[in-house]
Amino acid sequence: MTMQFAPTKPPDKVKILCGKCRVPFREKIKNVREGFQVQCPNCTKLITFSTDSADPTVQRAFTEVRRIKNGMMLSINRGDSEYSR
Ligand SMILES: [Zn+2]
Fold it and tell me: Which of 3, 18, 58, 66 is the most exposed place for a label (fewest CB within 10 A)?
């Protein structure tokens, strides 16, 4: 176990709210990047991640990923495990 190195398990997925059916689903953080496409498991709408997308679904996903990554950095620098969602 590498418990002392990673006191809290950082989330590896972000919540994505489908703009079509409004049903949230989760996608891996590493998949939320330029040019990647995911399909909504509920309505099969294809969502294309792009930083200049006008789709609020996509923009929200990017914001969420950035927030999680910043949170991970902060907790590493501070050496504390306080991470609240
Ligand atoms: Zn959907």
Answer: 3
